[in-house]
Amino acid sequence: MAETVTPEAVPDIGQEEETRPRAELDPGYLVICWDDPVNLMDYVTHVFQVVFGWPRQKAEFHMLQVHEQGKSVLAREGMEKAEHYVHELQKYSLHATMERDA
Amino acid sequence: MKLLRIERRKYIFQLTTPEKRVLQAVLSRYSLLPRRSQPLSKSTPEKADQRLLEEALAARRRDNQKQLQGLLKSKRRVQKAKVGWRMKLSGTDIEWMLQVLNDVRLGSWAVLGSPDLNHHLVVDDSTGPHLWAMELSGYFQMRLLEALQQGRATPKPHKKRTRKGRSGK
């Protein structure tokens, strides 16, 4: 006689798929500041400090990169946040754009 | 223009009468930057986003204009002193004044045809006023940035210690 098997209720302990914001899944935009011959170096440093909340040393590092190499990648973000940063930098009349990260 | 002191988060500057006039003259040139000078992206122009950016910048310019008119007329912020004038600015005021001055600086350079400033530039009746505005905007920007720097470096006054958790009887 075949044994009767009581079906076991197996608890669903499998890991649920994480849901993350789209911006986090697709951090595909680079926020770039480009060099120009008119903006004052101290001004650019100040703007980086205000917009990104960076300490002076980090802001100066990126300012010098802009000055010496013609541009600096300031952040890599999702579309919305990258747009926000570009808006903020352009409010201060810095030459900033967002470019899709290849 | 000289920072006298920082008092209750307000920056108090001293200006001579000529400095005040020059500052007003420079600020009154706002806004000079061409409206379509700022692309959102070099590689992937997205029209809707570009339009939003231009609208946001235009709104910002209107706000700055209003605030500027307020400052130039405000007797509370700019007062006659025994020697020269006193100008009282908050940190927020300084931020927008920096933006306004930078617009004048970059805009004057754009009006001059965006020249290479390391090469000889003819100074005559047509270029002189723009060069003047550009350099003086830079001068006032530097004074404001120095003041902010000084504000960051100034130690906060010590708070009196209070004994929390005790009945105080």
Question: TL;DR of this structure?
Answer:
Chain A contains four helices and three strands, in the order αβααβαβ.
What does this structure look like?
The complex is a heterodimer of chains A (102) and B (169). By secondary structure, chain A is of the alpha+beta class. Helices cover 42% and strands 18% of the residues of chain A. Chain A has four helices and three strands; from the N terminus they run αβααβαβ. Chain A has helices at 22-25, 41-52, 56-69, 79-91; strands at 29-34, 71-77, 96-100. In chain A, helix 2 packs across helix 3 (56-69). Chain B has 169 residues and is α+β, with helices and mostly antiparallel strands. Chain B has one domain. Chain B has four helices and four strands. Chain B has helices at residues 17-27, 47-73, 91-111, 128-153, and strands at residues 2-7, 10-15, 78-80, 85-90. Chain B has a four-stranded antiparallel β-sheet with strand order 1-2-4-3. The longest helix of chain B has 27 residues, at 47-73. The radius of gyration of chain B is 21 Å and the shape is globular. The model of chain B is unreliable at 165-169 (pLDDT under 50). Chains A and B meet through helix 2, helix 4 and strand 3 of A and helix 2, helix 3 and helix 4 of B.
